[in-house]
Design goal:
By secondary structure, the chain is mainly beta. The protein has a domain at about 5-45 and about 130-265: 3 Solenoid (UDP N-Acetylglucosamine Acyltransferase, domain 1), CATH 2.160.10. It has one helix spanning about 30-45; strands at about 60-65, 70, 75, 85-90, 95, 100, 105, 110-115, 120, 125, 130, 135-140, 145, 150, 155-160, 160-165, 165, 170-175, 180, 185, 190, 195, 205-210, 215, 225, 230, 235-240, 240-245, 250, 255, 260, 265. Strand 1 and strand 2 form a beta hairpin.
Length: about 270
């Protein structure tokens, strides 16, 4: 393997073209993080309820429909029939395209874009800028801050922190996770307690080795790149500078050292 390996987007992601210009083949894959803030600034279309007070918990459920926000005239349903999800009902009918901000959620500013069918549960705290894709769940106690790009059908779970990171469509971090300066590919699933650490104990930039070659990422903070469909076991820890190719498995309790791991790896 050579340095060129980590410039091959196909080792990691199959859906990067959905984010025109953000991912670039031929560039070191982690440089997407350098472009993230500019990309979000260019494409974000904030659509929060205009009367939200920054830093103050939302006082009542709010529903976003294509025609605008509702503060009443709907019912929030949660029972066995909803399979563990909040649903918005209007006139006795579920509205799958309705997005719900539950009472108790907190936003620090209005630089947030919410897609269709999004659920933001009580106690979640979101600091913009942030884009949340269609049918994504932001669960109780989630904390999102600093240029977060969350795709469609994702989960930002209970007491999970996401900082300056990307979730491609279907990526899920359901329970007790930390994702810092990282990218999760399509349909990645993080087991409970997974940590993607982004800062070395020692000073200097994050680096890793490919064979005998040491690669300096040029980033003081860099967590992990997890390719499409990577699965991590509970309580696994990625040291700063981990790059895992698609369709790999990281076993429970594994402490993953900096480096590149080829697609279809099993990491102990």
């Amino acid at each position: 393997m050579t340095e060129q390996t980590v410039c091959n987007i196909d080792c990691f992601f199959s859906g990067a073209s959905d984010y025109g210009g953000l991912f670039s083949d031929g560039f070191r894959v982690w440089t997407v993080l350098d472009r993230l803030d500019g990309y979000i600034s260019d494409v974000i279309r904030p659509n929060l309820f205009s009367q939200l007070c920054p830093g103050v918990p939302v006082s009542t459920h709010l529903v976003l429909l294509p025609q605008g926000w509702l503060t009443d005239g709907f019912e929030v349903v949660y029972n066995k029939g909803t399979r563990g999800r909040f649903q918005v009902w209007i006139d006795g009918e579920a509205i799958p395209q309705a997005s719900l901000i539950c009472a108790g959620a907190i936003f620090t500013d209005i630089q947030v874009q919410i897609g269709k069918g999004v659920i933001i549960e009580p106690g979640a705290m979101i600091k913009g800028p942030c884009i949340i894709g269609d049918h994504t769940e932001v669960r109780q106690g989630a904390y999102m801050r600093g240029d977060c790009l969350i795709g469609k059908g994702c989960v930002v779970g209970h007491t999970t922190e996401v900082k300056h990171s990307i979730f491609l469509n279907g990526a899920k971090a359901g329970h007790f996770a930390y994702i810092g300066d990282s990218v999760l590919g399509r349909d990645v699933n993080l087991g409970a307690g997974t940590r993607l650490a982004n800062l070395r104990f020692a000073s200097g930039n994050v680096s890793f080795k490919i064979g005998e070659q040491s690669i300096n990422t040029g980033r003081r903070k860099f967590g992990a790149i997890l390719g499409d469909r990577v699965q991590t076991g509970c309580n696994s820890v990625m040291n700063p500078g981990v790059l895992v190719g698609m369709d790999s498995i990281i076993n429970p309790g594994a402490i993953v050292m900096p480096g590149f791991y080829a697609p279809h790896s099993v990491i102990h």
